[in-house]
Amino acid sequence: MNVEDMKKAVAKEALRYIEDDMVIGLGTGSTTAYFIQFLSEKIQKGELEEIYGVPTSYQAKILAMEYGVPVVSLDQVDAIDVAVDGADEVDPNLNLIKGRGAALTMEKIIEYRAGTFIVLVDETKLVDYLCQKMPVPIEVIPAAWKAILEELSIFNAEAELRMGKKKDGPVVTENGNFIIDAKFQRIEDPLDMEIELNTIPGVVENGIFADIADIVLVGTKEGVKKMER
Ligand SMILES: O=C(CO)[C@H](O)[C@H](O)COP(=O)(O)O
Prior knowledge:
Blueprint: H1 3-14, E1 23-26, H2 30-44, E2 52-55, H3 58-67, E3 80-86, E4 89-90, E5 96-97, H4 104-112, E6 114-122, E7 136-140, H5 145-151, E8 158-161, E9 178-183, H6 190-198, E10 203-206, E11 208-209, E12 215-220, E13 223-228
Parallel strand pairs: 1-2, 1-3, 3-6, 6-12
Antiparallel strand pairs: 4-5, 5-11, 7-9, 7-10, 8-9, 12-13
Helix pairs in contact: 1-2, 2-3
Bound molecules: ribulose-5-phosphate (5RP).
């Protein structure tokens, strides 16, 4: 089983948690894209009814619209039953780093409020501690980017402004902000770090998702494994 097959396997497995009449937070990224596709197939077959998706990004919204999954915004719903999203790192306590796709703020807004937050990863995302492989994406107000970059040196972070790939200059998020990717040495206390980073003036949100995930479905060569809080 290659990584792509693992992503598909966890996306299929996540459907087990979806029932009629649910409002579902739709995450961002390649793994969640499979989930949206498979969710749509079940809806088209009539196996799921009265499903509404709350997208965490334009990517999720456009995919849902293309696949015919009804889309609503957060302010149109009373509650989110389940949210499904990928992650960049998962530690043994189900703490996450997210935000490679620069959608971390809306992802956290929605996933924090979900009755059940299900994370879909392949086994390459499992780490012993956060920041083992990936930096923490931090969404910042553009005017503050340079000051924040310097302030992050207090944490011994190697931090850089994220630059566009098919755009000149910095990546601009869907909220009109910049992203700083900060590689810390090792995050000992994810919750503490998540809160501390958000106290820096100009920081909108950061990609540490501590104590939010309820279930992590991990695609492995041996099949899907479940980690649960
Ligand atoms: O946080 C994210 C986007 O902001 C993604 O969920 C995360 O990067 C995982 O993506 P993929 O499933 O493509 O590996």
